[in-house]
Structures are given as structure tokens and as C-alpha cells.
Amino acid sequence: MAARNIVAKRTGRGRRGSGTREQLLETAGQVFSEKGYAAATGKEICQRSGANAAAVVYHFGGMENLYKEVIHEARRQLAPSEALALAVAKETDPKRKLTAFIQLLAAKLAGSLSSTWAVRLISREMISPTPIFDEIRNKEMRGRAAILRGIVSELTQLPEDHPAVARACINIMAPFGVMLLITPQRIERAFPVLSFGPESMDELTRHMVEFALGGLEAIARNARASR
Fold first, then answer.
1. First and final CA of the chain: distance in angstroms?
2. Which of 56, 70, 107, 168 has the most CB atoms around its CB within 10 Å?
3. Are 186 and 169 in contact (CB under 8 A)?
């Protein structure tokens, strides 16, 4: 009986510790997205999360490791390359692969997540990147580029290393960069006829896919004509 009580107490502490860690992570994401890595302090993060002043060091080993964890969490929320690869792998037709790729990114960056700290933090990092973010960003960009190159190559019947394929990938990804930097809410203010609400996601995806396919068709046609 005594042994069971000891285990129960330890388990309870573990659960509380896990809850504190998750709360610190969430609060840190908010603070970092508002102030940036350089201006944020462990003291403020602990105060806002209701944790002990030493909690950041105890749970993460310091601010740098905490920031890395926050960046990884933001990446996890915003359609990481692994999720994109999985969505694309479920399709066999290249047009449906492109649709799956665009649909997932649109749902994340133009949908309900567009006003979260994760989007604000990645947007801040795109404008003024920290060394901590560079490695993660480069890995993510390479992953997404590899997925998209394969799709564009299939659709255009051009080699993956063809310059036209690379340019087409940039064209397809550019709108998502705009969504990150400007935010859908500001785009709506500039173009009141547009909506980025849940009811508009299918229409947005369809438009982006049709636009991309039209451009890819022209690129493939011009590439064939120049051979």
C-alpha cells in the first residue's frame, strides 16, 4: 500500500510538471511572438504562466532551449513538411497531389490558425530571423521544396532540376508567404470582396490550384517549344 501511495504521488507530480511545462510553452509562444526572442524574459514568461521564477531553467534548461521548443511547436502547428508529404502520398494523380499540398497549407495559414501566436512568431522570424530559427527554417524549406518539385515535375514533364520547375515552385509558394507576412485579415481589408473564413477555404484552394495549373501548362508548353 505504501509503495502504491509513493507511485501515485510521483505520478501526480509528473502530471503537474507536465502541465506547467505545457503552460510555459504556450505562454512563451505568446511572449516571443509579441516581443521577439531578444526582448522576452524568463521572468515575464513565468509570471504570465503563473509558474515559479526558476521554471524555465527547470523545464527547458534556459531561454535558448525554450525558444527552440517554441519554434518547433509553431512549426508543428503550421503544416510541417512531414504532414505535407503524408497528404501528398495519399494521392496518385499529380493534380490531386497539388490540390492536397495547397489545401493543407491554405487551411493552416489562411484558416483559424492565421491569428495565433504560431503564425505571428513565424512571420516575425521571416522578417528578422534569429540564428536559432535558421536551421529549422532551412530544413523546412528544403522539405517543402522537395515535395513540390516532384509534383511540378510530374505536371510539366520536366526534370526536377529544370530551372522552370524551380521558378514554378516559387510561384506556387509565394501566396503563402504573403499570408504569413501580411496576414489574411489585412488582405481582407485591402480587398473587401475576399474572405478567408472557413466557408471560403474550398473556393480559395480551387482558385489557387486552377491558377497554378494554368501557369504550369503554359510553362510546359513553352519548354517543349524551345527544345
1. 82
2. 70
3. no
